[in-house]
Amino acid sequence: MSASEPSRPARGRAGERRASILGALRATRHGLGIKDLAGLTGLHDNTVRFHLDQLLADGLVHKQPGVPDRPGRPPLTYVARREPDEARDNYALIARVLGTALAGSTQDAAEVAREAGRAWGRAAGSASAEDWEGALDRLVALQTSEGFSPELLGGEDATVLRVHHCPFLALSREDRTLPCSVHLGLIEGVLGSAGVVQRLEPFVTPTLCVAHLAPGHDA
Questions:
Q1: Is 69 helix (H, G, I), strand (E, B) or coil?
Q2: Backbone conformation region of residue 9, classed left if phi is above 0, alpha if psi is from -120 to 50, else beta
Q3: What are the tens digits of pLDDT across the range 131-149?
Q4: How is the chain split among helix, strand and coil, in percent rounded to 5?
Q5: Using CB atoms within 10 A of its CB, is residue 177 exposed (0-12), middle (13-18) or buried (19+)?
Q6: How far apart are CA 189 and CA 186, in angstroms?
Q7: In which element (H, E) is residue 97 found?
Q8: Residue 212's pLDDT band (boundaries 50, 70, 90)?
Q9: Within the chain, how many helices (H) and strands (E) appear?
Q10: What's the rounded Cα separation, in Å, for the pair 75 and 65?
């Protein structure tokens, strides 16, 4: 790792802070300003501003004028992007239909879904066996762009990936088999030969999934 690259704990803290900011924004439909977010998350204004810039770049939030509380230009507020209700419902419906068809067409639908996830992950660029750090960076980048709100924590023997938002949550409430298989395959596809998933723990809390990762084949 070069001197310019963030350490694994630093990446973990950044992911946790970004997730807390995004969670605060998702909890309101009216938007929040920087000072409001700082008060809710306990972060410094400048730290909130930095992570908002990253969330804007990732397309997870957008800016809009707030309600003025004094004469002059109204303050900017930040709002979490949401799919229109109709589009979200249609995606959930087609996913259920396809999932039911898949489950009825094969005896191992979970493995088919897992392989689909691997293909998705490989499309982002699977890492070589020597590129463990690069694989972790690509995994965090991909999951961030897809709205998983990942947080990476390093340990002595393994790395823990905490996922604070499951994009498949609506489907997972009905049956976790296919969504969790896709998620597992996604991680495996990005890691490639650089690492393995020792285990994936879905929904250790109502909003948190945890994956235990290790470099090489030390499962």
A1: coil
A2: alpha
A3: 888 888 889 888 888 888 8
A4: 50, 20, 30
A5: middle
A6: 5
A7: helix 85-105
A8: very high
A9: 8, 6
A10: 6
